[in-house]
Amino acid sequence: MIFIYNYSAMDKQHLLYEIALIGVDDKKYRFAIGKAMRLYGEDSSEVKTLWSQQKTLDAINQQKIETIIGEYGYPGKSLVGSKLQNVALFVIQHASLEMQEHYLPVIFEAAKNDELHKLPVLMLMDRIHLNKYGKQIFRSQSIWNEVKGKYEQAPIDETIDADSIRIALGLKPAIVN
What we know:
Blueprint lengths: L11 H15 L3 H11 L4 H28 L4 H4 L6 H7 L3 H16 L6 H15 L8 E4 L4 E4 L8 H7 L9
Antiparallel strand pairs: 1-2
Helix pairs in contact: 1-3, 1-5, 2-3, 6-7
Protein backbone atom coordinates (compact mmCIF):
# COMPACT_ATOMS: atom_id res chain seq x y z
CA MET A 1 0.00 0.00 0.00
CA ILE A 2 1.64 3.26 -1.14
CA PHE A 3 0.27 6.64 -0.04
CA ILE A 4 1.45 9.87 -1.61
CA TYR A 5 0.71 12.99 0.39
CA ASN A 6 1.29 16.47 -0.99
CA TYR A 7 1.40 19.05 1.75
CA SER A 8 2.91 21.83 -0.37
CA ALA A 9 -0.45 23.59 -0.82
CA MET A 10 -1.75 22.69 2.64
CA ASP A 11 -2.73 25.54 4.89
CA LYS A 12 -1.56 25.60 8.49
CA GLN A 13 -4.94 24.55 9.92
CA HIS A 14 -4.98 21.47 7.73
CA LEU A 15 -1.40 20.63 8.73
CA LEU A 16 -2.31 20.97 12.42
CA TYR A 17 -5.31 18.71 11.90
CA GLU A 18 -3.18 16.15 10.06
CA ILE A 19 -0.47 16.12 12.76
CA ALA A 20 -3.12 15.77 15.48
CA LEU A 21 -4.72 12.86 13.62
CA ILE A 22 -1.29 11.22 13.19
CA GLY A 23 -0.78 11.57 16.95
CA VAL A 24 -4.10 9.86 17.68
CA ASP A 25 -3.38 7.06 15.22
CA ASP A 26 0.13 6.57 16.60
CA LYS A 27 -1.31 5.37 19.90
CA LYS A 28 -4.69 4.09 18.71
CA TYR A 29 -4.14 0.42 19.60
CA ARG A 30 -1.07 0.60 21.87
CA PHE A 31 -3.02 0.86 25.14
CA ALA A 32 -5.31 -2.00 24.07
CA ILE A 33 -2.24 -4.07 23.16
CA GLY A 34 -0.84 -3.69 26.67
CA LYS A 35 -4.17 -4.63 28.21
CA ALA A 36 -4.59 -7.62 25.87
CA MET A 37 -1.08 -8.83 26.73
CA ARG A 38 -1.95 -8.85 30.42
CA LEU A 39 -5.30 -10.58 29.82
CA TYR A 40 -4.49 -13.06 27.05
CA GLY A 41 -0.69 -13.30 26.85
CA GLU A 42 1.86 -11.86 24.46
CA ASP A 43 1.34 -14.52 21.77
CA SER A 44 -2.47 -14.47 21.79
CA SER A 45 -4.51 -13.94 18.65
CA GLU A 46 -6.03 -10.82 20.24
CA VAL A 47 -2.60 -9.23 20.67
CA LYS A 48 -1.49 -10.26 17.18
CA THR A 49 -4.61 -8.72 15.64
CA LEU A 50 -4.16 -5.45 17.52
CA TRP A 51 -0.46 -5.29 16.54
CA SER A 52 -1.39 -5.89 12.91
CA GLN A 53 -3.85 -2.99 13.02
CA GLN A 54 -1.34 -0.70 14.75
CA LYS A 55 1.44 -1.58 12.31
CA THR A 56 -0.82 -0.65 9.38
CA LEU A 57 -1.46 2.76 10.96
CA ASP A 58 2.25 3.12 11.78
CA ALA A 59 3.23 2.58 8.13
CA ILE A 60 0.75 5.21 6.95
CA ASN A 61 1.87 7.66 9.66
CA GLN A 62 5.54 7.13 8.78
CA GLN A 63 4.89 8.00 5.13
CA LYS A 64 2.96 11.10 6.17
CA ILE A 65 5.72 12.24 8.55
CA GLU A 66 8.41 11.68 5.92
CA THR A 67 6.45 13.87 3.52
CA ILE A 68 5.89 16.58 6.12
CA ILE A 69 9.57 16.63 7.16
CA GLY A 70 10.59 16.74 3.50
CA GLU A 71 8.33 19.74 2.91
CA TYR A 72 8.69 21.69 6.17
CA GLY A 73 11.56 20.20 8.15
CA TYR A 74 10.79 18.82 11.58
CA PRO A 75 7.21 19.81 12.54
CA GLY A 76 8.14 21.29 15.88
CA LYS A 77 6.83 23.89 18.26
CA SER A 78 7.05 26.88 15.91
CA LEU A 79 5.13 25.06 13.16
CA VAL A 80 2.55 22.94 15.03
CA GLY A 81 2.60 24.27 18.60
CA SER A 82 3.69 22.84 21.92
CA LYS A 83 0.90 20.23 22.15
CA LEU A 84 1.89 18.57 18.84
CA GLN A 85 5.66 19.13 18.83
CA ASN A 86 6.54 15.52 19.71
CA VAL A 87 4.15 13.72 17.35
CA ALA A 88 6.70 13.20 14.56
CA LEU A 89 9.30 12.00 17.07
CA PHE A 90 6.91 9.39 18.48
CA VAL A 91 5.98 8.16 15.00
CA ILE A 92 9.67 7.81 14.16
CA GLN A 93 10.32 6.10 17.50
CA HIS A 94 7.83 3.41 16.44
CA ALA A 95 9.45 3.04 13.00
CA SER A 96 12.22 0.79 11.74
CA LEU A 97 15.75 1.19 13.02
CA GLU A 98 16.70 2.51 9.59
CA MET A 99 14.12 5.30 9.77
CA GLN A 100 15.05 6.11 13.38
CA GLU A 101 18.72 6.48 12.44
CA HIS A 102 17.89 8.49 9.31
CA TYR A 103 15.86 11.11 11.20
CA LEU A 104 17.85 11.22 14.45
CA PRO A 105 20.06 14.13 13.26
CA VAL A 106 16.96 16.11 12.23
CA ILE A 107 15.29 15.39 15.56
CA PHE A 108 18.44 16.14 17.56
CA GLU A 109 18.86 19.51 15.79
CA ALA A 110 15.19 20.37 16.31
CA ALA A 111 15.54 19.61 20.03
CA LYS A 112 18.68 21.75 20.28
CA ASN A 113 16.61 24.58 18.76
CA ASP A 114 13.82 24.04 21.32
CA GLU A 115 11.40 22.78 18.67
CA LEU A 116 10.52 19.70 20.75
CA HIS A 117 11.00 18.28 24.21
CA LYS A 118 14.52 16.98 24.78
CA LEU A 119 13.97 13.95 27.00
CA PRO A 120 12.09 11.94 24.32
CA VAL A 121 15.13 12.48 22.07
CA LEU A 122 17.27 10.68 24.66
CA MET A 123 14.68 7.89 24.70
CA LEU A 124 14.94 7.57 20.92
CA MET A 125 18.72 7.45 21.15
CA ASP A 126 18.43 4.73 23.80
CA ARG A 127 16.03 2.75 21.63
CA ILE A 128 18.40 2.94 18.65
CA HIS A 129 21.45 2.00 20.73
CA LEU A 130 19.61 -0.85 22.46
CA ASN A 131 18.45 -2.30 19.13
CA LYS A 132 21.91 -2.05 17.59
CA TYR A 133 24.15 -2.98 20.51
CA GLY A 134 21.96 -4.53 23.22
CA LYS A 135 22.63 -1.68 25.64
CA GLN A 136 21.19 1.75 26.33
CA ILE A 137 22.84 5.06 27.21
CA PHE A 138 20.37 7.13 29.28
CA ARG A 139 18.48 4.53 31.37
CA SER A 140 15.12 4.99 29.60
CA GLN A 141 14.48 1.50 28.21
CA SER A 142 13.17 -1.70 29.75
CA ILE A 143 13.37 -5.21 28.36
CA TRP A 144 11.31 -8.31 29.06
CA ASN A 145 13.03 -10.91 31.22
CA GLU A 146 11.52 -14.27 30.23
CA VAL A 147 12.96 -16.07 33.27
CA LYS A 148 11.59 -13.56 35.80
CA GLY A 149 8.43 -12.90 33.80
CA LYS A 150 8.72 -9.13 34.11
CA TYR A 151 10.27 -6.01 32.60
CA GLU A 152 13.58 -4.75 33.92
CA GLN A 153 15.98 -1.99 33.00
CA ALA A 154 18.04 -2.73 29.90
CA PRO A 155 21.83 -2.91 30.35
CA ILE A 156 23.74 0.37 30.31
CA ASP A 157 26.57 1.11 27.89
CA GLU A 158 29.15 2.62 30.23
CA THR A 159 31.58 3.31 27.35
CA ILE A 160 29.58 6.32 26.12
CA ASP A 161 29.76 9.71 27.80
CA ALA A 162 26.03 10.32 28.25
CA ASP A 163 26.59 13.70 29.87
CA SER A 164 28.38 15.09 26.81
CA ILE A 165 25.33 14.19 24.73
CA ARG A 166 23.00 15.76 27.29
CA ILE A 167 25.11 18.94 27.25
CA ALA A 168 25.17 19.04 23.43
CA LEU A 169 21.38 18.86 23.53
CA GLY A 170 21.22 21.72 26.04
CA LEU A 171 20.48 19.61 29.11
CA LYS A 172 22.30 19.45 32.43
CA PRO A 173 24.50 16.45 33.23
CA ALA A 174 22.82 13.63 35.13
CA ILE A 175 23.35 13.24 38.81
CA VAL A 176 23.94 9.56 39.54
CA ASN A 177 24.41 8.41 43.12
